[in-house]
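Hi there, hope your week has been kind to you so far. It would help a lot if you went through both lines with me. No rush at all, and the record is pasted right below:

***
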Amino acid sequence: MRRNIAPTALLIAMALVSLGSTGCTTLGPSLGWMATPIPITAYQQKKHEDQFWNHERYDRAPILGPITSGAEVVALDPPSDDEVMRAMEKARPVQGGVPLLFERNRNNVRIVKEKIADYIDPPRVYPLIGPAQQHHAHYKCTVYYEDVRRVGWPVPHTLRDEDAREVIYVDHNHLHMVGNVDTGAGSPYGP
């Protein structure tokens, strides 16, 4: 009986040592139970991704160099189709719905953009920026599309509005520095 216990104990000890030394080891502090991932819904993830997309591309105002005398001052590029559709989705959401119960789509989308205003404010001092002028550009974007609504309950049917249209107003603002701008890069000719 004594002979069976020793090899079994040796095998158990080797198994425990091998299990303790496998996998990744972490050097340094551990977060413990706070390192456990928390699942979120697809709706919440898409909402956060859209917020980041808008912040990264459309919520910031660029700061351009000073306006040179005699040059014609025109606004930056007109709003992109993506920006117009995101603004329209905020105003009249289509995403979501319940498959086979109620769905809504926009098909055959065509966007017409026209500039309605382009002007520059007088110079003023902005905190953390310094003296600058704000350049405003206002656009009227008309979106023509086919609105398709599929209702699945109580009686399945499809509603089509082939001449749907929405008007979205998009404002683009950016700043122009005023005066002798010191970028902090230094002069190649010395201090």
The helical segments are 2-20, 42-57, 81-91.
